[in-house]
Amino acid sequence: MKGRRLPPPKMPPPGSGGYRQSEKLFAVVLKDVMDRDEELRDPVAHRKRIAAAIDFEIAERAAELRRREPGIRNPVTQAKKEAAERWGYDNVEALDRWLRRNRTP
Fold it and tell me: Domain boundaries in the chain?
């Protein structure tokens, strides 16, 4: 049907093992999101999708750190630090502020 948007795909919970996160897969998904025309018309929806992707990336990385390095302290904080560096934020607090402003309710 023309004019009707499909809902965004549901992501499995981080610990379920549904998607295997990899740099290439994430880059392809992000490029697909950025290429959509609807985001150009609705920047709020675009930011919310990017925020959801970053949240998913943080949760996956934290789960991976818990599995591979069981003795690591604060795996969520470590995952947020890596995501902040990857996404170009100065520190974890700046990333947290942006995510809090753009997260879906």
Answer: 53-105
